[in-house]
Amino acid sequence: MNTASDHATRCAAGTAGEAGQRLRAVPSAGRRAACLSLLAMLTLSACGGGGTGDATTALPSQPILAMIDPAAINIGSVGWRTSTRDAFLLAAKQINDAGGVLGKRLNAIALVARDNAEAQAMGQQLLDAGVTILNVSTSTRVLNLLPQAKLKAVPILTESSSSPTLSTIADDDLIFRIGVSDVDATPVLARLAWDAGKRRAVVLVNAGDAFGAGLASLFTPAFQALGGQVVQTVTIPFGQKNGFDSYLKQVYDARPDVILNGILAADISANVLNEALPYQNRALWLLPGTAAGNQTFLDNLADPARIVGGAIGAAATIGAYDNPSYQGFRARYLAQYGAEPQDFTAPVYDIVMVMALAIERAGLLNRTASPTGAMVRAALRDVMNAPGQTVRPDDIGAALALVRQGQDVNYSGAYADVDWDSHGDIVGQVPFTVFRLDTAAGTWDASQQLTVTVPR
């Protein structure tokens, strides 16, 4: 999945020392360069990064490089939402409170990029600055950064990259997901539509996007296998925010009873529904994880009560409600930020925990307090997969102690208890949440969860 969906007009940076302080964007014509510089300086000044910081302090010429702490273990994140940034920082804070890794502080540099170009610039700067391992959100951004990551031998862990391309691309075994591929997610959407009595589908996606291409190519055979048909695929230029009537006319001319809305940005996806209101068509809106359960999608709906066909979706983007580790994560997130964790936050939280365990093991195996990205990559499956003692994020300090003692561990997270296969894809039982739009209340009904074994 790919976009600056939630925060199209703001960007943010943070370190583990701040664990969630909100930072404002720079509302100027030169916003992109200034945003990187100013937010980096704000982070350094406000969060124990080493700056003193006031209105007269000169900005560093290389702001991301200035965030690097040579005495710490440096990890980075190029996210797409402040909520996932907050989860990244929360996990790092918890690890540091437990003593850090390899006798050092875990310096978590967490950035939020509003678009693909900004993500590329941020990711390149983090790699050039020397981070050991990187979290990157969305398929297109991961694929864009892969050549640079390969040059540095830095692994990329991602929570929201569902394109099947990530499973097959020559990545030097550097890409690892904590989240499902569309190969596993799309059949769940097809089944939802079929069980709702829908038989004629139109697929709506952004042109030139890896997520949209994968979604369209996988939904068609999955829906056809059930007995349905995809009668049209309509593509909208990437980044177009309004003026959708000509595309909606193509959609409704095909006479669908269900429309798969694969538009990437949650706010833009909602705008499509807003511009469809005058049609008052009873086709069901079917939503993948880019919109299903997303608060920004809800916030941008103009009049949910007028969506006569309703909207439903399914996404494997949060943990199972009855998972004690998810419950613990939720409690910590609420205590830190005073808000419910959003979709994709539990996987990001797990990503940082696994990073820490792998860094600790890489240091042990290679007898170094500063393991390279390649060393950490080689240790990722060691700490994620069986065999080994099951460890959980609730007591990450004890888990790290086991690794330091040379014991094998098997991480079971807030998101799910999964392993990584040879492609860096997850294997195991994954919770899918069914999200139904309550059009009267303008809220999500997320009471139903399904457990799906992946790969299917």
Characterization of this structure:
By secondary structure, the protein is α/β, with parallel strands linked by helices. It has three domains: 12-177, Response regulator (Rossmann fold), CATH 3.40.50.2300; 182-315 and 428-454, Response regulator (Rossmann fold), CATH 3.40.50; 324-391 and 398-420, no CATH class. The chain is built from 15 helices and 16 strands. The chain has helices at residues 31-46, 63-67, 82-97, 116-129, 139-152, 165-168, 182-195, 210-226, 245-253, 266-276, 295-299, 324-337, 345-366, 373-384, 396-404; strands at residues 12-15, 73-79, 106-112, 133-136, 156-158, 175-177, 200-206, 229-236, 258-262, 284-287, 311-315, 389-391, 409-411, 418-420, 426-438, 443-454. The strands form three sheets. Strands 7, 8, 9, 10, 11, 14, 15 and 16 form an eight-stranded mixed beta sheet that branches. Helix 4 (116-129) packs parallel to helix 5 (139-152) and helix 13 (345-366) packs parallel to helix 15 (396-404). The longest helix is centred in the last third of the chain and has 22 residues, at 345-366. The radius of gyration is 21 Å and the shape is globular. It starts with 11 loop residues before the first strand and ends with a strand. Mean pLDDT is 89; it is low at 1-12 and 17-55.
Write the layout of secondary structure elements.
Layout lengths: L11 E4 L15 H16 L16 H5 L5 E7 L2 H16 L8 E7 L3 H14 L3 E4 L2 H14 L3 E3 L6 H4 L6 E3 L4 H14 L4 E7 L3 H17 L2 E8 L8 H9 L4 E5 L3 H11 L7 E4 L7 H5 L11 E5 L8 H14 L7 H22 L6 H12 L4 E3 L4 H9 L4 E3 L6 E3 L5 E13 L4 E12 L2
Helix pairs in contact: 3-13, 4-5, 7-8, 13-14, 13-15
